Amino acid sequence: MKFKDLVKNLYCIYLIFLSEIFVRLKKYNWTINILTEILELCSKDNSALKDVKGSLFFDRGYIKFLNNDYENSIADLCKAIELIPDNVGFYKIRGRAYYFKENYENALIDFNKVIELEPNNTKNYIERGIIKYNMKNYENSIIDFDKAIELEPDNAEYYYKRGTIKKCLNNWRGNEEDQTKAIELEPNNPKYYYERSLAKSWLNDFSGEFEDQIKAIKLNPKNPNFYYRIDNKAIEKFVLKLLFENKHKEAINILLTALKNCSFHKDIIFTALSFVYFCQKDYKKALKYANEAILFNKDNVIGF
Prior knowledge:
The protein has 16 helices and no strands.
């Protein structure tokens, strides 16, 4: 090897080392500049291997992807794939770049290739299923989630996501069944209960709907979205159920939690608290919350 070539190679190694440091520091523009310089050096050297150039185009395309520059990322990844046509990672990143540009057709083409090259990777089916979901191709999206669940049957999140897609087809029973399976696998995840409560509402299981809402609130009382769909009838059923079971304190605790974290339905919650305290013969607190209900909503007949 000539001394000039040796120096050039050492310089390239140094630049690659620098680029790795800048990536870890998230200095993406600096990394791109360094990789561009290395590619220019390679372009002057006809003996440079295709694999080396392909990898460099991929590296630069990937950094551009991380920098949210999807258009230029795709351009580099196309060059990488042209030089190394069977690298599954190249198609994955390009497919994601197309996805973030909302070019779902090309994203789907790339993930079809990804699955052809790597058919037993669960996440590939999930990503393709999400692409199909965004294309409103719900039936085929579900098929991909079916395959992912077949490969990884104990992943609660996959059941949750498949269920949410089923509701786009008005398959509320299927959604409920998937959320129930997700809950079996992860019983302390509040969003599964909340999603199941939506399904139960459409299935006219109002008691089950509210029980799931309350479970979601108990697990994460600071999420205001969990309170949004609680209405007068739901609270009434819930309070009567707990009073019938002689669970006054539990009813009060949940209603107070709702009051603290909920910016709507406050007059309903005040009224429910008043009723529970009235049943406990704590007339002072019953009157206090009845007054709060009336102040909050002067048309609250139950408060009066």
